[in-house]
Fold this protein.
Amino acid sequence: MTGSLAAWAGSSVALDRWENKILEAKEPATGEGGTIDIESDYYLVRVDAGNGAIVKLLDKKGGIDLITEPRLADNFRVLLPLPDLEANYIVGPQQKLTSHHQGNDSLELTWQGPLRNPKGDFDLNVAMRIKLNGPSIEFSLHVENHTSHQVAEVWYPILGGFTGIGEREDSIEMIPVAGGSSRTELFREFQGRAPGGGLGVTYVEAFWTYPNPMPMPWIGLYNRKLKRGIYFASHDRICRFKAVRFELHPGIGSRQYHGNWPRPDELDRDTPLGLKLHWTHFPYTKAGETFAGPPVVVQFHDGDWHDSAKIYRQWFKSQFTILDSNSNWMRQKLAFVDTMFLLPEGNVIVPFKDIPHWAKGAADYGVTSVLISGWNIGGHDGSYPYYDPDPRLGTWDELAEGIRACHKMGVKVFFFANIQPVRVDTDWFRTELHRYTSQDKWGVDYAVMGWGMGTIGARLGYTRPPLVGDCSGIPAFRKIIVTKMTKLAEIGADGIHIDKLWPHPGLDFNPLSTLSPDQATSVGRLLALEEILKACKAINPEFAISTESAWDRTLTYSNVAWAWHDNASDHVPVLKYTFPEWFPGLVVPQPFDFTPVNNAVRYGYQIFVGPGNYIAPDSMAYPTMRRLSEYIREVLRIAEDVKDTIFFGEFMDDQQGHCESGDEMRHSVFRNPKTSKRACVVVNLGSRPNDASIVGFAGNSNGEVIVRQPFAEPRRAILPVKLVIPAERLAIVSEA
């Protein structure tokens, strides 16, 4: 997809002619008790002819019938809130299928209104299309709203009555969360994840929302023994808030051992056991309008979640632009330093006149990218959106002079900023900004937030500056932010870091928004990125941004991010594997953070240095940081020769390479897209030296490699290679 985001925002672009309208009645349903089949070389999908419930989904290649309990078969659900019943759900299997049309590769189902529930009849028309598209199945749903109410939620397709891919105990789910995964094991220990502990629902549920905390709208279910998996994704070209949800019937039993699913001896023959899985949209479709739902794709495939990730990447690249890593100077920097110049409690850390000294403290250790935080009125997270220099630090002219001094040293400078937070106890808020706040359905502002730093009371949260989020879906508010950011470009800034970009709240009902509630935050944020870049690049064509977010759609504008992974522990790098272009920073704020430095290289992440918890005025020259700073300089030195493979190549996770080592060791493999040569990064997480053996790479068990370790010259060796890696250190072994 090319062109501006504005052309897509708020649009229900038709995928083909079918998606322009609800299907007209064609053939009568075959009647109660009958079924309708649609079949290809890959799949057999069967629906109940009476109500359209999906009763069978057979993967022919894998021999896997997903729906093993037809009594839980389902299809869709629509929420139509009423003044006296917010939870006015219309359940698909309780509706009569009024017509269907079967083509060579598609099945079109229609439920003509009125649709019914115990509350009465409702003038809604629903149509679902099931399309067999080669190796995938696409489910689409339209809802015509002829009532006087709004359609708040639409669930589809509801795949009900399955217990895994093959044997339940061998089934695993991969749910992308932030840059990692949910770390759940739903097929063994079903963890209910709902605000309030799941009150209000008979069964247990677990759900995750996109675009926060999910960075991509897909999940993978797989069985390692069968080497077979399912990709379940919403292929939505509009960046709408949505949720993927599991529901377990009939419930769970809390136990210490052996999982919490019901045991066979606990179930009687009349009680069905299984999961329901679906995507939920929140369109708030008005009276007289139609919700045109995006395709939800089900695709069986060989392998595990890595193969699901490849499917999503292929679709994403066909629809959206991914920023070229070579076009963003921030993406070229393997490390950067961040310091808060002024805390919100008034603590002055670095005045503008000391910028040259501060920047030199980074440059002397090989880091030539610096971030100035807390430069604005009120200090860091203090008085947004007053994006003007705080007089306690200096003037615009002094700030500009500091930037010029950095440039003379070969150091790039960018600034910390935000898109949405505003301080509530200001004149500006009282006279204007209060109109732009993010609001819930009842017009109430979402909760006050804030981050205190300079006192214990502030760090406890009691005396931190009071901030609320304003609605990015309001053009007038975005214009304020764009104007402020343009001033930074005018004084010579090389870029900005946009913090708190996570798309929250998922639904924003401010009536001034030009976007629907499910797009006001997500599409609004993306429009802000687009507008900022356009304005700033008109002044400086190389102007760049980084973001605090793990979110696929930001890759069009920036591939540098803060994701806040636990810097010393493992995570499953799902977003990095799907999009190697993504370059999150792994934070290094303390003087003995050697493991985070190593892990940054292990994952192909940026080294995010915040000396002394981001308030060391000497930057990396801060006395307690110097030993670590010297190590960072060495790591950058040895990484320089292989950066095209590790930092700009393909991240292979633990695939394509075989490393034998102890429990305290970890490794990752990268591939150079130009030469196809690979590199293995081995990290010792332990507190003593450990051995590792690089047995080989896929298809290469006896080739020549180059071994690189800090404070040593590169050496050549022949596979397999045995290494001794000191405590909390790393080694890089690359194909010669």
